[in-house]
């Protein structure tokens, strides 16, 4: 079987990081516009991310008494690193940075790091509010992580491969999103959750003074917030080869389709923030285990049966 | 060559991070020092071309340490887990036991006549490893998996102090259930 993707030299990692940066900025700009519109502000909100970055870069870095600085900084910067590691296995049309034979598991290992990084950011500040936020995230994690894992199983079973490029190539003609919608929804829920976004934002809730981000300031807050947008972008990018046919599409070349689909998914993720209510961690826990997990398992069973039936 | 250097560097990281678990004075640092140690081992396994095993090791261990952070505060009460505290208990016996284990293992490494390589590695080393470990004992493995899952469920059932009669009343007819922590599905 011919390899569906070509590995590009490591130097292209810089370009991939730049591309992720562009997507991240686009997500932040779009969110700024939506916020400005919702608030009925006179300005368009296009410049919001720029002003926010400038403000945070000028702001003095605040610290707390007896903070665990090492773990706090690791947690704050970790989300950005995670998103960069995720995009290494996402093929851009024909090219990929890291053609790992177990790329799907790689994504899973990287998304689990969110548990560590978000909790550490909450822990490190030595502040009650931010620690409560960290535990809220873990409570969400216990509910979304297993459905997310089993959602990733479905495309891998259908393609009988854990290689992301092979999974994308296996959707020749029929995208996985069409015949495994439950897995796709569970995946999207997980992708939004690792970015602590929208329905999963109680960890940063205003009722606990900003939760995990309560004590973050200056460049630390910039890294954490930027990391959340970058994770949204990386989650959207990974959905494309897994469920949306990768670079498949008429007229345009593969890489353009991958980008186009990524931007579309990312826009929906950003937009959803204002459309869905937040999920209370304690209530979502039961939903995750009693509704979501069985639904995804049934999805896996159906996919496995079809895969066996096709031979 | 680079692989060799990376392998040994990771080995040093793994051992030092493992030792740090006992040096540090905070539960969080101990948990994540252990996670770092396991991540280094996971990357070593990746270098051995056991890609699946390596990545799964990283996945499982990071998640495990995060879950440990939950239990640490849940079961230890807030104060001891959040305050600086020593990570070693019963030092004298622990030192004796660990020195003994180290001497035995190190002696084993030095005294065992290591075999020279015969033949070449298999095409897919992960599949070969799985075959070697479980091939003829697949039925046993499947049964053990089910038994472990049942044990977990049974353990939780035995440990929970509330029964269905507490939840649903003596005639099991109370709806919704009387739970101290309501769930999201409204059972």
TrEMBL record, chain A:
Please state the protein's primary subcellular location.
Answer: membrane
GO cellular component terms listed in the entry, alphabetical order: plasma membrane
Query: Under which name does UniProt file this protein?
Result: NADH dehydrogenase subunit H
One Gene Ontology BP term is:
aerobic respiration
Spans traversing the lipid bilayer: 12-34, 70-92, 104-125, 137-162, 174-197, 229-248, 254-272, 284-308
Q: Name one Pfam family in it.
A: NADHdh
For this UniProt record, give its keywords in alphabetical order, as a comma-separated list: Membrane, NAD, Transmembrane, Transmembrane helix
Origin organism is Micromonospora halophytica
How would you describe this protein's topology in the membrane? Multi-pass membrane protein
Top-rank taxon: Bacteria
What Gene Ontology terms describe what this protein does at the molecular function level? NADH dehydrogenase activity
Q: What family is reported?
A: Belongs to the complex I subunit 1 family.
Give the location in the cell: Cell membrane; Membrane
- Known InterPro entries for this protein? NADH_UbQ_OxRdtase_su1/FPO
UniProtKB/TrEMBL annotation, chain B:
Compartments in which it is found: Cell membrane
Q: Topology in the membrane?
A: Multi-pass membrane protein
- Record InterPro entries: NADH_UbQ/plastoQ_OxRdtase_su6, Nuo/plastoQ_OxRdtase_6_NuoJ
Arranged from A to Z, the UniProt key words for this protein are: Cell membrane, Membrane, NAD, Quinone, Transmembrane, Transmembrane helix
Q: Which GO terms describe its molecular function?
A: NADH dehydrogenase (ubiquinone) activity; quinone binding
Q: Which family is this protein grouped under?
A: Belongs to the complex I subunit 6 family.
The protein's name = NADH-quinone oxidoreductase subunit J
């Amino acid at each position: 079987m011919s390899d569906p993707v070509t590995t590009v030299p490591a130097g292209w990692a810089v370009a991939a990081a730049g591309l992720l940066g562009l997507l991240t900025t686009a997500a932040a700009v779009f969110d700024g516009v939506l916020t400005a519109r919702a608030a009925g502000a006179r300005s368009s909100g296009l410049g919001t991310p720029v002003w926010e970055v400038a403000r945070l870069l000028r702001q003095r870095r605040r610290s707390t008494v007896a903070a665990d600085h090492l773990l706090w900084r690791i947690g704050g910067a970790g989300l950005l690193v995670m998103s960069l590691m995720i995009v290494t296995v996402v093929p851009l049309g024909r090219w990929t940075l890291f053609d790992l034979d177990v790329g799907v598991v790689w994504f899973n290992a990287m998304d689990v790091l969110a548990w560590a990084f978000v909790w550490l950011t909450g822990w490190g500040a030595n502040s009650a509010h931010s620690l409560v936020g960290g535990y809220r995230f873990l409570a969400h994690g216990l509910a979304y992580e297993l459905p997310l894992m089993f959602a990733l199983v479905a495309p891998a079973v259908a393609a009988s491969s854990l290689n992301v490029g092979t999974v994308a190539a296996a959707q020749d003609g029929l995208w996985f999103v069409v015949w495994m919608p439950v897995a796709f929804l569970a995946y999207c829920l997980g992708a939004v959750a690792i970015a602590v976004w929208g329905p999963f934002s109680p960890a940063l809730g205003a009722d606990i003074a900003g939760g995990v981000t309560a004590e973050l300031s200056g460049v630390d807050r910039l890294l954490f917030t930027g990391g959340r947008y970058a994770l949204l972008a990386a989650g959207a990018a990974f959905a494309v080869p897994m469920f949306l046919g990768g670079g498949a599409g008429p007229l345009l070349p593969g890489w353009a389709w991958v980008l186009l689909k990524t931007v579309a998914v990312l826009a929906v993720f950003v937009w959803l923030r204002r459309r869905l209510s937040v999920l209370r961690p304690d209530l979502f826990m039961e939903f995750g285990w009693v509704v979501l997990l069985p639904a995804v398992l049934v999805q896996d069973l159906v996919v496995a049966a079809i895969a066996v039936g096709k031979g | 060559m680079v692989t060799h250097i990376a392998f040994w560097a990771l080995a040093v990281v793994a051992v030092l991070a493992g030792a740090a678990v006992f040096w540090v004075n905070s539960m969080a640092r101990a948990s994540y020092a252990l996670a770092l140690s396991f991540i280094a081992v996971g990357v070593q396994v990746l270098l051995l071309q056991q890609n699946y095993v390596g990545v799964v090791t990283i996945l499982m261990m990071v998640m495990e340490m995060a879950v440990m952070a939950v239990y640490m505060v849940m079961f230890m009460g807030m104060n001891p887990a959040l305050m600086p505290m020593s990570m070693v208990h019963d030092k004298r016996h622990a030192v004796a036991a660990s020195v003994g284990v180290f001497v035995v293992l190190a002696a084993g490494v030095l005294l065992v006549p290591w075999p020279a390589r015969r033949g070449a590695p298999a095409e897919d080393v992960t599949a070969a490893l799985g075959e070697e470990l479980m091939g003829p004992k697949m039925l046993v493995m499947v049964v053990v998996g089910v038994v472990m899952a049942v044990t977990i469920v049974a353990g939780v059932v035995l440990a929970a102090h509330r029964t269905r009669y507490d939840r649903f009343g003596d005639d099991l007819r109370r709806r919704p259930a009387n739970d101290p922590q309501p769930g999201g599905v409204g059972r």
